[in-house]
Amino acid sequence: MTVYFIGAGPGAADLITVRGARILAASPVCLYAGSLVPVELLAECPKDARLIDTANLDIDRITEELVRAHAEGHDVARLHSGDPSVFSAVNEQMKRLDEAGVPYEVVPGVPAFAAAAAALNRELTVPTVGQTVILTRVAQRATAMPEGEDLATLGRSGALIVLHLAARYVDRVVDELLPHYGGDCPTAVVAMASRPDEIILRGTLDSIAGQVKAAGVIRTAVIMVGRTLGAEQFRDSHLYSPERDRHVC
Protein backbone atom coordinates (compact mmCIF):
# COMPACT_ATOMS: atom_id res chain seq x y z
CA MET A 1 0.00 0.00 0.00
CA THR A 2 1.12 3.57 -0.64
CA VAL A 3 0.99 6.93 1.10
CA TYR A 4 0.22 9.69 -1.41
CA PHE A 5 1.35 13.20 -0.50
CA ILE A 6 -1.12 15.22 -2.54
CA GLY A 7 -0.91 18.94 -3.24
CA ALA A 8 -4.47 20.11 -2.62
CA GLY A 9 -3.84 23.50 -4.21
CA PRO A 10 -4.09 27.01 -2.76
CA GLY A 11 -7.71 26.95 -1.60
CA ALA A 12 -10.29 26.51 -4.33
CA ALA A 13 -11.45 22.90 -4.24
CA ASP A 14 -11.39 22.58 -8.03
CA LEU A 15 -7.69 23.46 -8.24
CA ILE A 16 -6.61 20.01 -7.13
CA THR A 17 -5.13 18.06 -10.06
CA VAL A 18 -7.10 15.33 -11.81
CA ARG A 19 -4.55 12.80 -10.55
CA GLY A 20 -4.86 14.06 -6.99
CA ALA A 21 -8.65 13.90 -7.10
CA ARG A 22 -8.57 10.37 -8.53
CA ILE A 23 -6.28 9.11 -5.78
CA LEU A 24 -8.30 10.89 -3.12
CA ALA A 25 -11.49 9.21 -4.33
CA ALA A 26 -9.86 5.78 -4.10
CA SER A 27 -8.07 6.07 -0.74
CA PRO A 28 -9.73 4.49 2.35
CA VAL A 29 -7.75 6.83 4.65
CA CYS A 30 -7.26 10.58 4.32
CA LEU A 31 -5.11 12.81 6.51
CA TYR A 32 -5.62 16.54 5.97
CA ALA A 33 -4.78 19.86 7.60
CA GLY A 34 -8.22 21.08 8.60
CA SER A 35 -7.14 24.71 8.91
CA LEU A 36 -5.79 24.86 5.35
CA VAL A 37 -7.40 22.25 3.11
CA PRO A 38 -10.89 23.12 1.78
CA VAL A 39 -13.52 20.93 3.41
CA GLU A 40 -15.23 20.51 0.02
CA LEU A 41 -12.38 18.24 -1.03
CA LEU A 42 -13.31 15.69 1.62
CA ALA A 43 -16.54 15.02 -0.28
CA GLU A 44 -14.35 13.32 -2.88
CA CYS A 45 -13.26 10.66 -0.35
CA PRO A 46 -14.99 7.26 -0.25
CA LYS A 47 -18.13 7.38 1.92
CA ASP A 48 -16.63 5.09 4.54
CA ALA A 49 -13.13 6.63 4.49
CA ARG A 50 -11.33 7.31 7.75
CA LEU A 51 -10.78 11.10 7.87
CA ILE A 52 -8.08 12.44 10.17
CA ASP A 53 -7.57 16.16 10.77
CA THR A 54 -3.86 16.73 11.43
CA ALA A 55 -4.19 20.35 12.55
CA ASN A 56 -3.58 19.42 16.19
CA LEU A 57 -1.31 16.40 15.66
CA ASP A 58 2.48 16.41 16.01
CA ILE A 59 4.79 14.63 13.57
CA ASP A 60 4.90 11.44 15.66
CA ARG A 61 1.11 11.12 15.76
CA ILE A 62 0.87 11.77 12.03
CA THR A 63 3.50 9.12 11.34
CA GLU A 64 1.65 6.64 13.54
CA GLU A 65 -1.51 7.12 11.48
CA LEU A 66 0.35 6.70 8.18
CA VAL A 67 2.16 3.56 9.33
CA ARG A 68 -1.02 2.13 10.84
CA ALA A 69 -2.96 2.58 7.59
CA HIS A 70 -0.16 0.94 5.63
CA ALA A 71 -0.09 -2.02 8.05
CA GLU A 72 -3.84 -2.42 7.57
CA GLY A 73 -3.39 -2.57 3.80
CA HIS A 74 -4.87 0.84 2.98
CA ASP A 75 -3.72 3.49 0.54
CA VAL A 76 -3.51 6.88 2.23
CA ALA A 77 -4.24 10.32 0.79
CA ARG A 78 -2.15 12.83 2.74
CA LEU A 79 -3.50 16.22 1.68
CA HIS A 80 -1.23 19.25 1.88
CA SER A 81 -2.20 22.78 0.93
CA GLY A 82 -0.52 24.25 -2.14
CA ASP A 83 2.26 22.14 -3.60
CA PRO A 84 4.35 19.70 -1.53
CA SER A 85 7.62 20.99 -2.99
CA VAL A 86 7.72 24.22 -0.96
CA PHE A 87 7.02 25.00 2.71
CA SER A 88 4.92 21.87 3.18
CA ALA A 89 6.73 19.99 5.99
CA VAL A 90 6.70 16.87 3.82
CA ASN A 91 10.41 16.10 4.21
CA GLU A 92 10.17 15.02 7.85
CA GLN A 93 7.23 12.78 7.05
CA MET A 94 9.01 11.10 4.14
CA LYS A 95 12.10 10.60 6.28
CA ARG A 96 10.08 8.75 8.91
CA LEU A 97 8.28 6.66 6.31
CA ASP A 98 11.67 5.68 4.86
CA GLU A 99 12.73 4.53 8.30
CA ALA A 100 9.48 2.56 8.69
CA GLY A 101 9.75 1.01 5.24
CA VAL A 102 6.48 2.54 4.04
CA PRO A 103 6.31 3.43 0.32
CA TYR A 104 5.05 6.85 -0.74
CA GLU A 105 4.50 9.00 -3.81
CA VAL A 106 4.24 12.77 -4.25
CA VAL A 107 1.44 14.25 -6.35
CA PRO A 108 2.14 17.92 -7.20
CA GLY A 109 -0.41 20.67 -6.76
CA VAL A 110 -0.96 24.33 -7.60
CA PRO A 111 1.33 26.41 -5.34
CA ALA A 112 0.10 29.53 -3.57
CA PHE A 113 2.44 31.83 -5.49
CA ALA A 114 1.01 30.60 -8.81
CA ALA A 115 -2.55 31.23 -7.60
CA ALA A 116 -1.49 34.68 -6.44
CA ALA A 117 0.04 35.50 -9.82
CA ALA A 118 -3.17 34.36 -11.49
CA ALA A 119 -5.22 36.59 -9.20
CA LEU A 120 -3.00 39.52 -10.21
CA ASN A 121 -3.22 38.61 -13.91
CA ARG A 122 0.55 38.74 -14.04
CA GLU A 123 3.35 36.67 -15.52
CA LEU A 124 6.15 36.76 -12.97
CA THR A 125 8.92 36.59 -15.58
CA VAL A 126 9.02 39.33 -18.21
CA PRO A 127 11.61 39.54 -21.03
CA THR A 128 14.28 42.21 -20.41
CA VAL A 129 12.66 43.15 -17.08
CA GLY A 130 13.05 40.11 -14.85
CA GLN A 131 13.65 36.40 -15.44
CA THR A 132 14.24 35.20 -11.90
CA VAL A 133 11.77 34.42 -9.13
CA ILE A 134 12.91 33.82 -5.55
CA LEU A 135 10.58 31.89 -3.24
CA THR A 136 11.45 32.45 0.38
CA ARG A 137 10.19 33.37 3.84
CA VAL A 138 11.46 35.40 6.79
CA ALA A 139 13.02 34.17 10.01
CA GLN A 140 10.45 33.55 12.71
CA ARG A 141 10.31 32.02 16.15
CA ALA A 142 9.88 28.57 14.61
CA THR A 143 12.79 28.23 12.19
CA ALA A 144 15.78 30.45 11.52
CA MET A 145 16.88 31.15 7.96
CA PRO A 146 20.13 29.56 6.74
CA GLU A 147 23.16 31.81 6.46
CA GLY A 148 23.07 33.91 3.33
CA GLU A 149 19.30 33.57 2.81
CA ASP A 150 18.21 36.66 4.72
CA LEU A 151 16.17 39.22 2.81
CA ALA A 152 18.95 41.79 2.80
CA THR A 153 21.19 39.32 0.96
CA LEU A 154 18.55 37.99 -1.43
CA GLY A 155 17.38 41.51 -2.21
CA ARG A 156 20.72 42.39 -3.77
CA SER A 157 19.74 40.32 -6.80
CA GLY A 158 16.87 42.65 -7.68
CA ALA A 159 14.85 39.59 -8.70
CA LEU A 160 11.14 39.22 -8.03
CA ILE A 161 10.80 38.01 -4.45
CA VAL A 162 7.81 35.97 -3.32
CA LEU A 163 7.46 35.65 0.44
CA HIS A 164 5.35 32.99 2.10
CA LEU A 165 4.31 33.11 5.75
CA ALA A 166 5.43 36.71 6.11
CA ALA A 167 2.34 38.94 6.17
CA ARG A 168 2.51 39.58 9.90
CA TYR A 169 6.13 40.72 9.42
CA VAL A 170 5.43 43.12 6.56
CA ASP A 171 7.23 46.03 8.27
CA ARG A 172 10.41 44.00 8.48
CA VAL A 173 10.04 42.91 4.86
CA VAL A 174 9.73 46.52 3.73
CA ASP A 175 12.68 47.70 5.83
CA GLU A 176 15.01 45.00 4.50
CA LEU A 177 14.06 45.33 0.84
CA LEU A 178 13.79 49.13 0.53
CA PRO A 179 17.55 49.70 0.08
CA HIS A 180 17.64 47.31 -2.88
CA TYR A 181 14.28 47.87 -4.61
CA GLY A 182 13.35 51.44 -3.76
CA GLY A 183 10.10 52.74 -2.34
CA ASP A 184 8.42 52.91 -5.75
CA CYS A 185 8.92 49.21 -6.51
CA PRO A 186 5.64 47.46 -7.40
CA THR A 187 4.46 45.25 -4.55
CA ALA A 188 1.41 43.05 -4.09
CA VAL A 189 -0.10 40.92 -1.36
CA VAL A 190 -2.62 38.18 -2.11
CA ALA A 191 -4.34 36.50 0.81
CA MET A 192 -6.51 33.38 0.54
CA ALA A 193 -5.68 33.14 -3.17
CA SER A 194 -8.41 31.43 -5.21
CA ARG A 195 -10.87 31.32 -2.29
CA PRO A 196 -14.18 33.20 -2.06
CA ASP A 197 -12.66 35.52 0.57
CA GLU A 198 -9.57 36.29 -1.52
CA ILE A 199 -7.94 39.66 -0.80
CA ILE A 200 -5.74 41.43 -3.37
CA LEU A 201 -3.63 44.41 -2.37
CA ARG A 202 -1.54 46.32 -4.91
CA GLY A 203 0.88 49.12 -4.18
CA THR A 204 4.56 49.86 -3.72
CA LEU A 205 7.09 49.07 -1.02
CA ASP A 206 6.29 52.47 0.46
CA SER A 207 2.55 51.83 0.68
CA ILE A 208 2.01 48.09 1.09
CA ALA A 209 2.54 47.80 4.85
CA GLY A 210 -0.28 50.26 5.55
CA GLN A 211 -2.60 48.39 3.20
CA VAL A 212 -1.83 45.03 4.80
CA LYS A 213 -2.57 46.36 8.28
CA ALA A 214 -5.74 48.14 7.17
CA ALA A 215 -7.01 44.92 5.58
CA GLY A 216 -6.14 42.88 8.66
CA VAL A 217 -4.07 40.38 6.69
CA ILE A 218 -1.80 38.35 8.96
CA ARG A 219 -1.77 34.82 7.49
CA THR A 220 -2.47 32.65 4.43
CA ALA A 221 -0.90 35.27 2.17
CA VAL A 222 2.04 35.79 -0.14
CA ILE A 223 3.95 39.03 -0.59
CA MET A 224 5.43 39.79 -4.02
CA VAL A 225 8.04 42.48 -4.63
CA GLY A 226 9.61 43.19 -8.00
CA ARG A 227 9.61 45.30 -11.15
CA THR A 228 7.90 42.64 -13.29
CA LEU A 229 4.68 43.26 -11.34
CA GLY A 230 4.37 46.66 -12.97
CA ALA A 231 6.10 46.06 -16.29
CA GLU A 232 4.36 47.75 -19.21
CA GLN A 233 7.19 48.42 -21.66
CA PHE A 234 9.01 45.22 -22.51
CA ARG A 235 10.26 43.21 -25.43
CA ASP A 236 8.06 40.37 -26.72
CA SER A 237 9.17 36.86 -25.93
CA HIS A 238 11.33 35.17 -28.56
CA LEU A 239 9.03 32.11 -28.33
CA TYR A 240 6.33 33.60 -30.57
CA SER A 241 8.39 36.24 -32.34
CA PRO A 242 7.75 36.52 -36.11
CA GLU A 243 11.54 36.90 -36.45
CA ARG A 244 12.17 33.44 -35.02
CA ASP A 245 13.25 30.76 -37.47
CA ARG A 246 10.78 27.98 -36.74
CA HIS A 247 12.61 25.52 -38.98
CA VAL A 248 15.53 25.39 -36.55
CA CYS A 249 15.15 22.93 -33.67
Automatic annotation (TrEMBL):
InterPro entries: 4pyrrol_Mease, 4pyrrol_Methylase_sf, 4pyrrole_Mease_sub1, 4pyrrole_Mease_sub2, Cbl_synth_CobM/CibF, Siro_Cobalamin_biosynth, Uropor_MeTrfase_CS
Keyword list, A-Z: Cobalamin biosynthesis, Methyltransferase, S-adenosyl-L-methionine, Transferase
Residues in Tetrapyrrole methylase domain copies: 2-208
Gene3D superfamilies, A to Z: Cobalt-precorrin-4 Transmethylase, Domain 1, Methyltransferase, Cobalt-precorrin-4 Transmethylase, Domain 2
Pathway: Cofactor biosynthesis; adenosylcobalamin biosynthesis
CDD domains for the chain: Precorrin-4_C11-MT
The keyword Transport belongs to this UniProt entry's keyword annotation: no
Family membership: Belongs to the precorrin methyltransferase family.
Protein name: Precorrin-4 C(11)-methyltransferase
Annotated organism of origin: Streptomyces badius
